[in-house]
Write a structure and sequence with these properties.
The structure holds two protein chains of two kinds. By secondary structure, chain A is mostly beta strands. Chain A has no helices and eleven strands. Chain A has strands at 3-7, 10-14, 19-26, 30-38, 45-50, 56-59, 62-66, 70-75, 84-92, 102-103, 107-112. Chain A is globular. Chain B is mostly beta strands. Helix content of chain B is 0%, strand content 50%. In chain B, strands 2, 4, 5, 6, 9, 10 and 11 form a seven-stranded mixed beta sheet that branches. Chain B has a four-stranded antiparallel beta sheet with strand order 1-3-8-7, with no helix packed on it. In chain B, 35% of the residues are buried. The chains are: A mainly beta, B mainly beta. Chain A binds chain B through residues 31-32, 34, 36, 42-46, 49, 87, 89, 95-106, and chain B through 4, 6, 31, 33, 35, 41-45, 48, 55-56, 58-59, 91, 95, 98-99, 101-107.
């Protein structure tokens, strides 16, 4: 069964303290891995898509990397406004024409000033 | 360029009533997805539609739930005879194609009393 596991469940950082969030996945075949940010009471906001092992993408203080079994979201010198829940999702190859995303339960990040 | 629009943002229904949730995709997007987010749980796929067609409904409960995406107008997720367990946030997403990123709306928060 296709599955996504995120760790840690929650992470508290001081402003400027860099860290990484982990997303481990098990899929029959990976079509794409997606990172989203979700603020309380809002919908997920798209951040990155990664398609193949070794791929990296960056946006401001965030950098996403991908291996054959997991992805990392690195946060460099975070600011309080980076506080949110970060969601990882995979799209699996096969299963017909479905485009569905399989989500992990997220990492709740709190950055304190 | 308006994003994915969902309405209403909040919906309260008594047990046994019907709930209708609406979603207008981003301009130029013809693929629509519905997800449900229960308290303390991750986003769960419900259904994937293209104009006038249901492509994948593997995540839809067998009874009381239905979805459509007509040729004209928004996509509708309908829940008949709602029960307390249907209380959740329902998110709609849209994409331009099969292998492109999905963008989410702000969600409809359904409360069944």
């Amino acid at each position: 069964e296709d599955q996504v596991t995120q760790s840690p469940e929650a992470l508290r950082l001081q402003e400027g303290e860099s860290s990484s969030l982990n997303c481990s996945y098990t899929v029959s075949g990976l079509r794409g891995l997606f990172w989203y940010r979700q603020d309380p009471g809002k919908g997920p906001e798209f951040l990155f898509t990664l398609y193949s092992a070794g791929e990296e993408k960056e946006k401001e203080r965030l950098k996403a990397t991908l291996t054959k079994k997991e992805s990392f979201l690195h946060i460099t010198a975070p600011k309080p406004e980076d506080s949110a829940t970060y969601l990882c999702a995979v799209q699996a190859v096969g299963g017909g024409a479905t485009n569905k995303l399989i989500f992990g339960t997220g990492t709740l990040l709190a950055v304190q000033p | 360029n308006a994003g994915v629009m969902q309405n209403p943002r909040h919906l309260v229904r008594r047990r046994g009533q019907e709930a209708r949730l609406r979603c207008s995709p981003m301009k130029g997007h013809s693929h629509v997805y519905w997800y449900r987010q229960l308290p303390e749980e991750g986003l769960k796929f419900m259904v994937y539609l293209q104009k006038e067609n249901i492509i994948d409904e593997s995540g839809m409960p067998k009874e009381r739930f239905s979805a459509e995406f007509p040729k004209e107008g928004p996509s509708i997720l309908r829940i008949q005879q709602v029960v307390r367990g249907d209380s959740a946030a329902y998110f709609c997403a849209s994409s331009a194609g099969m292998n492109t990123e999905a963008f989410f709306g702000q969600g409809t928060r359904l409360t069944v009393v």
